[in-house]
C-alpha cells in the first residue's frame, strides 16, 4: 500500500502521482484520455501548434484531455533555438494561463538529444520571464548542476533517445544526478516497458515522464495501467531500501533441525 | 484586409483580434494569438485592431510528449 503522504512537489505544486504522461501518438484523443486516466497521471505534457484553419471543427485535445482534470505541462518540442522555445512557451502560457512548462531545445532529429548550450540559454530567458521550468536534458551530471543553479524547477534527463524505448542507458549518471539535486529529478524519455520505469524510481527519481512507451504499446490502456504500478513499485522499493548485493548464496531456510 | 494567418495569406473582414478569431470559427477560450510576434492577451482581444499586412499566429494545445 502506497503511503498517502508520499507526495512530490515541483515549483510549489504538490502531486501524488509520480507518472507524467505525454499526449502524443495516440490513435485519438479519447484513447489518449483513457490512457492518462489508467496511468493515474495528474500531469500531462502537451505541445503547442498552429490551429488548422481549413477545418476548425476537428477534435481538440482540451475537449478530451481536460485542463480541469490534468495539469498541462506545455513543451517546446520541435524547437531548435532558445528564441523558438521562449516564443512557444509564452504562447502556451497565454493559452493555458500558467507558467509551469517543459523546456526542450533539440539538436539533431536523428537522436533528439537536447542542445544543452541552447537549453541553458533558454532556461535563463524563461526564468527571467517568470516561468517555472522543468528541463529536458542529457544525463550529464555537471550540466544538470548548471541547470539547477540557473533556476530549473526540475531536472529531467533522458534515459535514452525520445521514443526509442531502450530503457535507462546510464544508471550511474541518473543516480549521481538524483544525489546532487535539490530540485525534483525525473527520467524523461527512453522508457520502453514497465521495468524501465521501476528502475528509474529505484534510482531515486521523483517521477517518470513517458509518452511512446504507453502510446506505442499494442494495448496502450493496459500499458498505462502497468506503468502506474511499475512507478509505485519502484518508489516503494526505493523507500524500503533494497538488500545489499552479495557474490554468494545465503540460504533462506535454517540449517538447524535438518532431518 | 489582407493579412497573414498561420503563414497563409487571407482576406478578412474582422477589425479586431476577437472578431478575427470568431471569423475563423474558433473558440477564443481555446486558442492563443500572436500579432506581429507579440502575444495578444485574451483580455485585449476585443481592443486590439487588425491592420493590413498583419502577421497573425493562432495556436492551440495538441498532443505531445
Overview of this protein structure:
The complex is a heterodimer of chains A (259) and B (65). By secondary structure, chain A is an alpha/beta fold. Helix content of chain A is 37%, strand content 16%. A three-stranded parallel beta sheet of chain A has the order 3-10-9. A three-stranded parallel beta sheet of chain A has the order 6-7-8. Chain A starts with 7 loop residues before the first strand and ends in a 19-residue tail after the last helix. The mean pLDDT of chain A is 95. Chain B is mainly β. Chain B is 11% helix and 37% strand. Chain B has one helix and five strands; from the N terminus they run E-E-H-E-E-E. Chain B has a five-stranded mixed beta sheet, with no helix packed on it. In chain B, strand 1 and strand 2 form a beta hairpin. In chain B, 29% of the residues are buried. At the A-B interface, strand 4 and helix 3 of A face strand 3 and strand 5 of B.
Tell me the helix content of chain B. Answer: 10-25%
Question: Describe the biggest sheet of chain B?
Answer: 5 strands, mixed
> Which stretches of chain A are low in confidence, meaning pLDDT under 50 for 5 or more residues running?
none
CATH superfamily of chain A: Aldolase class I
Work out the helicity level of chain A. 25-40%
- How many strand elements of chain B? 5
Q: Multimeric state of these chains?
A: heterodimer
Largest sheet of chain A: 3 strands, parallel
Unreliable sequence segments of chain B: none
Write down the domain tally of chain B. 1
CATH fold-level name of chain A? TIM Barrel
Order of helices and strands of chain B: EEHEEE
Strand content of chain A: 15-25%
The domain count of chain A comes to 1
**CATH classification, class level of chain B:** Alpha Beta
Would you report the number of β strands of chain A?
A: 10
Structural class of chain A: alpha/beta
**Mean pLDDT score of chain A, rounded?**
95
Number of helices of chain B: 1
InterPro entries (chain B): Beta-grasp_dom_sf (IPR012675), Mopterin_synth/thiamin_S_b (IPR016155), Thi_S (IPR010035), ThiS/MoaD-like (IPR003749)
Protein name (chain B): Thiamine biosynthesis protein ThiS
Catalytic activity (chain A): [ThiS sulfur-carrier protein]-C-terminal-Gly-aminoethanethioate + 2-iminoacetate + 1-deoxy-D-xylulose 5-phosphate = [ThiS sulfur-carrier protein]-C-terminal Gly-Gly + 2-[(2R,5Z)-2-carboxy-4-methylthiazol-5(2H)-ylidene]ethyl phosphate + 2 H2O + H(+)
GO biological process, one term (chain A): thiamine diphosphate biosynthetic process
